[in-house]
Amino acid sequence: MTEVLFYHLEQQPLDRVLPSLLEKTLDRGWKAVVRSGNEERLEALDTALWTYRDDSFLPHGTTKDGSAEMQPVYLTTGDETPNGARVVFLVDGAELDNFEGFIRVVHLFDGHDKDALARARKQWKAAKDAGCAVTYWQQNAQGRWEKKA
Q1: Residue 55 half-sphere exposure, CB side, CA atoms within 13 Å?
Q2: pTM of this prediction?
């Protein structure tokens, strides 16, 4: 059964939250694909994953880098998964129609954006209707994640 997680971003922006979630994914030995709803965000995330910490980086690539099948984390605006990832992160309006083949789907959305909230509600319903195990996480005032549903 696919596990679908919703992360409601309120205290920290995507470029601060995504790297830590990707690190946890790689620590489990999983590959990931990050799907963005727009090219500008994809380019910003590409840069952020190389520079988010002074002492570390996240190995990743895009179609421009080549060898997509070898990337631990693959960034895209499309629906391809050339690295065989079993975990997909959906950001900036990216959606997933078919949960098959993934062990985990992670939606990250801006809690201050009404359109993003509406999309998340729609995606929640689709995941529930597909029989996925669904959880909802929200940041508290200290930026820690609390399971809300």
Answers
A1: 0
A2: 0.95
